[in-house]
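Bumping with the actual sequence this time:
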Amino acid sequence: MYPPFVTGDLMDLSHILAFNATLLVAILSPGPAMLMSIRATLAGSFRQGFMVGLGLATMAATWTTLALLGLDGIFTLFPWAYLTLKIAGALYLIWIAVQTWRHARIPLDPDAASHPRGRSFLSGLAVNLANPKSVLFASAVLLVIFPPDITLADKAFVVANHLVVEILCYSAFAALLSTPAARDGYLRAKTTLDRVAAGVMGALGLRLLLDR
């Protein structure tokens, strides 16, 4: 007889490949996480963009962990908990949008690249924390891709894999966008790009707020 933590249905490479493909599509889809990652790198540096990406990745992997632990079931039992998180997250995204719009015309802070790493990490963490729908998305993806009742070791591997994929993606974004050419282009079009980002972020916040 096997111990409880290794019993369960088997997971193979095809499941991980399908999961990673779904992750890549989600990461590359325009949304608050993508906007935050891009803007942090362009306005700051590779280090700032990387730290924001690390925060985004950490929270995304945390949502997957909570999905594997059944948080979606708790949301079903206590819909007010989901509603509270959703409203708080939507208001946070709208607040970011308002601040970005207000500061669109202000020249870039010359010390932006030296902002504390911890602040950048927490910014990324907060943006993905602001979207509790992530745990519902993760639950749906996990349910479709993986066998039911996978082992605890497999669950730990899925979470670690998710974290690594997200970190690699956001690191690649930061590396591509931290070049002098990308930064110069951003500086020339800062007002327009910031207001577009603010508009998209605000729309996403309103959608989250009004979505049933």
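The tokens above came from a reply further down the thread. Residues 1-8 have pLDDT under 50 and may be disordered.
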